[in-house]
Amino acid sequence: MAILSKEEAQAILKKVLSYSKSDACEVSLNGSDEGNIRYARNAVSTAGQIDVMSLSVSSTFGKKTGTATINEFDDASLKKVVERAEELAKLAPENPEYMPPLGPQTFAESLTYNAKTAAMNPETRADMVAKSLSVSKGANLEAAGFLVNSNRFSSIMNSKGLFAYNKSTNVSFSVTMRNQQGTGSGYVEQDFNNLDKMDTLALSKIAASKANGSAGAKAIEPGKYTVILEPLAASDMLGNLFRGFDARSADEGRSFMSKKGGGTRLGEQLFSENVNIYSDPLNPEVPGSTWSGDGLPVTKTQWVENGVVKNLSYSRYWASQKNKQPLPFSRSIVLEGGNQSLEDLIKSTEKGILVTRFWYIRMVDPQTLLLTGLTRDGTFYIENGEIKFPIKNFRFNESPVIMLNNVEALGKPVRTGSGLIPPMKIRDFTFSSLSDAI
Amino acid sequence: MKRRDFLYLTGIGTSAAILPSLAFGKLISVEEALTPVDVALKKKMADVALNTAKANGASYADVRVGRYLNQVIATREKRVDNIANSESYGMGIRVIANGAWGFAATNNLDKDSIAKATKLAVAIAKGNAKIMTEPVQLAPQKGFGEVSWKTPIETNAFSVPMAEKVDLLLSVNNEALKGGAKYINSNLFMVNEQKYFASTDGSYIDQDIHRIWPTFTLTKIDAVAGKFETRNALSAPMGMGYEYLQPLDSEKIKGGPVTMYKKRYDMLEDVREAAVHVDEKLKAKPIAPGKYDLVLDPSHLFLTIHESVGHPTELDRVLGYEANYAGTSFLTLDKWESKKFNFGSKEVNIVADKLETGSLGAVGYDDEGVKCGKWDIIKDGILVNYQTIRDQAHIIGEKASQGCCYADSWDSIQFQRMPNVSLSPGTAPLSAADMVKNVEKGIYMFGRNSYSIDQQRYNFQFSAQIAYEIKEGKIVGMFKDAAYQANTQEFWNSCVQRCDKNDYRLGGTFSDGKGQPSQASAVSHGSPTTRFNGVNVINTGRKI
């Protein structure tokens, strides 16, 4: 019900614009139908299904803009929300950074929707969770997990004639398995647009194996180690880095992308030569929307090539100030790797630490992008190409910029969150203290 | 439309004609935000859900009709970035059927949609019952009939003219620029939760809850050195109205290196001080790693309390319900059962309080109809209790819930959330200035900065907005790159001294995250300035 077709969304947006009396008007209409099931202590704890749809209207007089939102869609409510936005606009101070709406644009058809995922219901979810519970119960472990699927649409229209629509599905599963003594814990997490790719049984077996394998962890001294980061751990570190590819904060001197003495580090060799990062919403493994919130087409963009920063993201306003083309960022990030598997990376390691995932990562210093956080749910000592024993969790203090300068090897990228991220072998990763957490 | 349909269907059209026309609108007008939905109407809607749930086989049901108003004003330097008023309005229905929970929510508040959502909640419960291991056990809760509660505010922030609020923020920015700031962002967040709760226990509870959070980030840049430094506001988000932004000298603590604010905040004064602090930060000396005595101001300590005391004493974490996301807890049931687990020194007295005036977590009743109160969590350093809700109370032998249930929206499922968890002030008279006089080698920290703690709450690392060096009882300058790393139990056992009640202040957060799907909760933590001896401090400076 909350998922409108392109034509239905277009009809409502047109109607809203027909009520507008402002100089410029931008309208967005979004809806989602999301179902979830959560379990803990080997039993379902909560489950629910939520449909929501909302409309946002931004009206502008001159350079004064007001925004109002609503979640009712009868004619009277639509008229009222436009009036409300216009009232707010008249009260608002001028925005010197206001950019007039874009005219019509051409967008590629996205690959984000899958009918089978859209058709998931409470029974589908319960069955998928039952498979996970069969693993934990069979292995005498305790499982806590979460399965959520969503079916969404988003659309925008403005008074200059721009219209964009996208429909997407997603299914996301994660589970933590712990042994009864509380001495071992394992975790998996996976997102897909396509339900067929999601195998809760196989994933739960990985979590179970890590829970058993991590029991009886030994303490080793904190310090600098070669680490092998599973794709999830690597992705945990890189989120903050990707957010830093913003031209404005770099130009303003308040980002790790800012250059000493002014300007940005665009064009500089900031990372190891084997680091290549691009985004591509049409990559079928990590499909994304082909338009940004302000109506710009989102296309394949190279951000880092052979370790050199090739592009920074520009908002329309900042691009106009710097005589650049606006360039939106995309969540469909690909960090290119090789063909080596995680096992290959372990085999090639004389001494090192395998990290399943990181947890509670926070920025310590935005200037160097120094992050702190901890390992979690399976950390192992590697010697002579083999996992020797589980080790206690560490706190780290490390910058992903430094990390991507210390790349020894990159494995085969896999879907992690909304990106494709390889397992990574990194030297001199800084662990600063031990944690008793399991 | 929704309102009219509902009124028609429920046959109360006559009285409806005199209801405010906005009662069911989802609009964002300032004026209309001041007009709450009619209580009689909310009761009628709730009864549709409760009756449908019972008729379809639910043994228990509760309904939350929520109207959540948010106003955000965001400014930067000399301009307003954004003014947004938003409203979210709808109903969440939670039921127990065949011993399992089910939940559904709708923003279509006509009779048919409410009935349909209720039936869906019952169907989900029955589906879950098939893979249930043991049925839900709810602690008994008497119905309160029709009752209400309001945050005791003086001025509703939504009623203050927009121009006045914008003027304040732009004046703050102007002060910052005059003080040499290169960039200044200032924001004002206002929240009004109008929540109506009804359950098959016979409660119909109407609550009107207000929160406010003014904040800023001031940035200066040393372009030659390629360095920048920032200082955030030392305000606290509060469960108050606009009066929080009307300064009062009696609510300030002066005399130290930083002006501190109790229940009234002087944003202009704070930003002027911030401009000076950032100059000091740019010139501050890097800290030498090692052991230091820490003097922690409440504007900083609140977050350490939140992470290292608030979270590990959440019973759902202890039991494993959060194992897949927020984590579990080192404060396992055996530690509580022993009645002698030494969480901290004798100075450490931690109280949970759902009623504290001015706090973010203050409500009359929680989101499952339990009347709120106050209880000890750590008494003289010993773990004595947890935080719990109705379906978990029996696990720790409690006959009633402690009233810690909360949902961040009508379309979120309520679950156990942290009450205000606070460190009590010391009983002996002591000011912060006098505390500093006795410190030989220490750091005096103000304001929250980086924070991280493991999933069982043993190992943490925190840094501050401002870290002053204390040498032989005197503040001698500012440190940079200082963060302390500690183990929770060791840290709280190193707590040696607390200032008195005159120094007690609240800190807090609007966005404590927990649960899947993740929900935000607002919670306060009070404390006096407190001293911890011999804490490990690291240097976080790096070169890239």
Automatic annotation (TrEMBL), chain A:
Q: Where is the Metalloprotease TldD/E C-terminal domain?
A: 222-432
Q: Which intervals hold domain Metalloprotease TldD/E central?
A: 140-212
This chain belongs to the protein called: TldD/PmbA family protein
The text of the family note is: Belongs to the peptidase U62 family.
Q: Which SUPFAM superfamilies match?
A: Putative modulator of DNA gyrase, PmbA/TldD (SSF111283)
What is the species listed in this Swiss-Prot or TrEMBL entry?
A: Pedobacter ureilyticus
| Residue ranges constituting the Metalloprotease TldD/E N-terminal domain according to the UniProt record | 25-89
| Pfam families with a match to the protein in the record | PmbA_TldD_1st (PF01523), PmbA_TldD_2nd (PF19290), PmbA_TldD_3rd (PF19289)
Automatic annotation (TrEMBL), chain B:
Q: Which Pfam families match?
A: PmbA_TldD_1st, PmbA_TldD_3rd
Q: Residue span of the signal peptide, if any?
A: none
User: Which branch of life, at top level?
Assistant: Bacteria
User: For the Metalloprotease TldD/E C-terminal domain, which residue ranges apply?
Assistant: 289-538
Q: Carries keyword Protease?
A: yes
Q: Which InterPro entries match?
A: Metalloprtase-TldD/E_C, Metalloprtase-TldD/E_N, Peptidase_U62_metallo, TldD/PmbA_N, TldD/PmbA_sf
Alphabetically ordered keywords of this record: Hydrolase, Metalloprotease, Protease
SUPFAM superfamilies referenced in this protein's UniProt entry, alphabetically: Putative modulator of DNA gyrase, PmbA/TldD
Q: Where in the numbering of this chain does the Metalloprotease TldD/E N-terminal domain appear?
A: 61-125
Homology family? Belongs to the peptidase U62 family.
What's this protein's name? TldD/PmbA family protein
Q: What is the protein's species of origin?
A: Pedobacter ureilyticus
